[in-house]
Amino acid sequence: MAKISLQDIRHSYLSNPRLDVDFALKHIDIVFEDGGAYALLGPSGCGKTTLLGIVSGLVSPTSGRVLFDEDDVTDMDTIHRHIAQVFQFPVIYDTMTVFDNLAFPLRNRKIPETDVSSRVLEVAKMLDLEEGIHRRAASLTVDGKQKISLGRGLVREDVNVMMFDEPLTVIDQNMKWELRSKLKELHQNVRTTMIYVTHDQTEALTFADEVLAFKPVRQLPRLAFVLNMSDSVSRVSR
Amino acid sequence: MISKSVKQSAWFFVIPVVFLVAFNALIPLMTVVNYAFQETFGDNVFFWEGLTWFEQVLNSDRFHDAFLRQIMFTSIILLIEVPLGIAIALSMPRKGPWVSVCLVLMALPLLIPWNVVGAMWNIFALPDIGLLGYSLNAIGIDYNFTQQPISAWITTILMDVWHWTSLVVLLAYAGLTAIPEAYYQAAKIDGASKWAVFKWIQLPKMKRVLTIAILLRFMDSFMIYTELIVLTGGGPGNSTTLLSIDLVKLALGQFDLGPAAAMSLVYFFVVLLICWVFYTLMMKNEQQ
Amino acid sequence: MLDLSWMAWTWPTAGFFIFILLCIVSMGIWEKFSPGGGPRRGVFGIDTTRGDRLFISLLGSIFIFLVWLWAFSTPLWGAVMLSFIWALFVFLRV
Amino acid sequence: MNSNRRTAAIPLYRLLVPAIYILFLMLPIYWLLSMSFKTTNEILGGFSFFPRDFTLENYIEIFTDPTWYRGYLNSITYVVINTVISVTFALPAAYAFSRYRFLGDKHLFFWLLTNRMAPPAVFALPFFQLYAAIDLYDTHIAVALAHCLFNIPLAVWILEGFMSGIPKQLDEMAYVDGYSFPRFFVKIFMPAIASGIGVAAFFCFMYSWVEMLLSKTLTSVAAKSIAATMTRTASTAGYELGLLAAAGALTIIPGAIVIYFVRNYIAKGFSLGRV
Fold first, then answer.
1. Nearest by CB: D133 against C6, C31, C51
2. E strand or H helix that includes residue A197
3. Is A87 helix (H, G, I), strand (E, B) or coil?
4. Which domain holds residue A91?
5. A78-105, pLDDT tens digit by residue?
């Protein structure tokens, strides 16, 4: 677990950005405290996903630094950052069973099989996935699959931060509520830092201790300003 | 997948196609069935022979040999073309200007008329004036595909790999590009090795297109005729006489229409059975 | 009238095709008056509808006939019996 | 979605595999071209990597001798007719398969597929007699119709794949807006699957162009295909390799031209529109 600081992050998808509009993210300075539950709120296309990518190491920022506690991890591999991420659409390994899906991140890290087994069963219990744990993951409903994506993050004990990229988009209405409260409950139990990206205000407010609001990039004022604003106006402390 | 509604009148949309294909497929098929039970000496005079030809075909060494050669040929080219095609598709760039260049150049062999493919490989492999044959002999390998059965086989297989591997490449490539980026990102986060990504993400996602590839390659290689007759003519001896070549030798060379028809039908049923099994498995996967 | 003598029709082969045609037509009529419903999963672990079962029966029978012919030669009464049992098995269990 | 600066550049050694493969593909084609620019004497005289006496004679002969260039024209004619017929017939059928369930639909689909399975060698004879019986032997339309055997199923497969990707709501919305079915199909639906139609047409063109056995069987003089012309050269005029190579090289061009137009859809088309 760690405190995550983004220092003066800028990012552009162009190879040679010059104008301000070339940047998907401009001048981001945020600190995510250890154990906090944060929500990034904003319309699509405002750079929330990019921000997650920068934290997870899937995207290298054009400039700026990413710190986990005091360590500079800007150029570190995704795998060494010890992060977990749940995507908009459930990502599961179709040909594996539910059990193997959950065990996958542990086995890749060469953890002894006895530990894997106990840890997986524990997480499966937490997520109500025990039933049919040896069935093929492909046979599950979409919310079951999303739980597996979530579970693959939870099984690892060394996770610095768990990130959610609009994870409930494809879940139907009544399951949404259930999964949301599950997440909240999980956060209380495991106390990992969680960052939750959404464009839904209710979702953001119910999940997070702090909400950071983004505005679309194209629109002025710039993000830097928006984040300043977020300190005073839209940072809802609870 | 779209949920489809039941509508029997949709048959009217299909009837023209059914009619046209049936015209081309059923009439010749029926004729071949008729031939298979009769003896003819030309002039549309036929004599009923019953099951003689089938019995003769099933017990003839010639049929067994040609069948074994055909199975061997099809297995070899599948074993080469499928893994090779996957490997090439995996190493191709996913975006950028080189994609189009690669795709167009790779598709080129598929667009060359089959007799030209045969002729091209013939002059490419000729031991005295062909690039391949001359080079091999120049570096001391005794190679002559018109004389040595082994050389003929190697040339035939090389030609088929040249001609058709691109089909597997293009299919596998289409399957690969359809995998959402999130899968690779999730795998990275889960710490998966390259091999694990291939085994658990890429291969399962390519399963469908690979089934199509294997199905098409199986059917077409079982029926290979034009390229082969131009390249080796089935020789030297009978060494590269695969199914179709044998059938033509029988039907046109010796005018043994009946046995040739019976043999075609036996082959047809074997291919039908194998393809049906494949097709059923393919559809089974799709429903999941 | 078209000259179709080149097709070399004989009564036995014509009978064979008429038999196939009748099978398909009667399957259609059967389906219309008593729909077979969705596919079921049989002993081979594959989902089949009635039409699939007809196809499996026919294709299987062809191979029964070929194998019989290869192993025991004519007469084929045994193959007919076996095919009938096979078809029955397919329609009831597969 | 996320381009990453660490992984954006593909390592060079990975490009090596496709590069070597393409080199392997190009070698026989190079040899064909090289042969086509050589004189018969040079070819038979021995091995030479580049044409020493560069000559266009072979090409000149093809473009001036009517039996040669008519071969190409005849082939292109039946290929185009076949493409038009195949796609036109396949469109409504593919629509039915992609939108509705009806009695025997799956079996029909499989039956269409089985038409690639019959060994063509023996079936060519009945084809010849069939088209002779209906007085179409040695016409372009005969070959065009015969090629429907494998091209229509192919076109149905490809189009069905592309159509399944179009949500059904499009159809429903059009009906709500008062479109009649034919008007909807032509004005709205066909433009929506335009790329699919292009790909299907490309594949029909290609398979009809490369198929040689049926086209040779069904033509003799008036509609003689390029395949038949080439076979004749190989057998009667001795072994005019240079001429044969030039004729072969020219058959690559039509395919190369059409492939250029569908290059972005080739991969998807080969997977029959469904990935």
1. C6
2. strand A193-198
3. coil
4. 4-234
5. 888 888 888 888 888 988 889 999 999 8
